[in-house]
């Protein structure tokens, strides 16, 4: 089982990463930091005569890396009660990938993977983070990915997460695949 | 009452816009198309010593325009069971605005406004769009904005929305302020 | 197409019924009022050696009636942000029906039906009624019933619903089957 | 701090109780088993000229007991993606209590309490139990009760819950008040 963590934080070594490393230590997975890649927001050209125009950025680089792994851990701070913009931009572009002749296998490949979610927010995340959990479930369902579990942490200021003992404990037993 | 519509579609004259114009005809409001503005995703620098660095893009232009109105209609296609990346990027940056010395009144001003949501999706949006509704409610609650109503439409291919008579009808009676 | 409406109101001619008749006029369907039947809450005996003990009440009468129809409209006031106790008691007992040797076809039969929901609440039902919508979707999914649509109305005092023009309008175009 | 646990299970010593005792050992709280009390479903007579008629059952006995405590743990199996009928019947009747001249202090008293939820289901409860969490949050909000936390367990057959190590662990650190 090969694990990849896809980090949607824009801040290095923040609370979300801290909690995520508790779930997946650095050496146990490929850690992909979306902030290290240039990824453009999608422009919906599904219905253009010539379909999507090529976008010259790093999106397929991340997609390729992601597809090499069996278990995907999505890690995101909760911004305005959903995933970070960086994570959303990355996922929005999957609509383009699905129409890319080089990725006709994309949906089927994702359908073989297992997914986890780690999310950290400051404003009552155990309640106000639930729409994100539900949204993520729908994304998994679309691809036939198995949504294996999630951990929600509460933190706002730097290092806050160290006080969320319940989340740290839950994270440490989140992943079943190693 | 001054109305503004904030459009999160990346495609002009698509289904979401069509439904939105049924709720708010072009001449009845200021229509702001986020795709016409350059807006960078947020980089979380809340906890940096010097706070957020200035970002030279169009974000405050849209914010200023938005603040001049009393009723805000957010219009977004449903991408992956939430708002479009374009809309999310715009809203994520509100975290930066709140720490901007020029916008100390931002939260309070939003708290005086009324908000509506128009959302269109192709995959069972009346169920799978509900996390977006809930998320939007939490955003409104944060600012004390009054969430006055929403319409969900079902459409996938161009012009599909014209067949969603229920949504068109609901949109036409959505806004109470004119 | 034979329609049945299952009414979970405990009060006759209340707001929920008013809205429901707008969706399904009295003469267009079999109207089943749960308050007219004696139905006991379930006692979970799934794991007893002899399984469920017979319950001598009207539950199977309602079940039999329900199964004779193709389209089921569930109508319930929103009590404490979910269906009424009367409706919940009725549905809880389905767990017993599924283990009843006389109803081995129950799950499969329900899977052929179409379902609608009409719900009326007084406390921001368009937001706080959403968990009920989601719950109802899960129930339908369990049986493979097709959840065709829902209407949410806002009313608290008697006759309030007459002022909810949007809900009345939406109800009048809810059912596609006649 | 006085703790009470309100058990909505209809089966003694089932999975939900097992998990709940991990959160609140028997000797640390008053354990109230709703199945030991006769409680009638509400009949909505809010709008009758003379209001609610007296109901001669055990409801106020449980209410009185509940009100003597500071922390309330609601424990329920997940039946059809929400609380058990027994629990729903109990809570539905709160609408009657609020209009009872002997309980004019009811809402205010509840507003001083802290609440927890323990819920156990068999069908993907970490996703399909979320509407129940949200519903429970709305109930707490109505009264101004502080919703302090919840644990969801997965179990179907007797003793299944013993295998849900994550839930058992989470339950053991759920309650902050002792």
UniProtKB/TrEMBL annotation, chains A, B, C, D:
Cross-referenced InterPro entries: Flavoprotein-like_sf, FMN_Rdtase-like_dom, ISF_SsuE-like
All residue ranges annotated as the NADPH-dependent FMN reductase-like domain in the record: 1-125
Keywords recorded for this protein, A-Z: Flavoprotein, FMN
Xref: Pfam families: FMN_red (PF03358)
Tagged with keyword Transmembrane: no
Sample GO molecular function, one term: oxidoreductase activity
SUPFAM superfamilies xref list: Flavoproteins (SSF52218)
Name by which UniProt lists this protein: NAD(P)H-dependent oxidoreductase
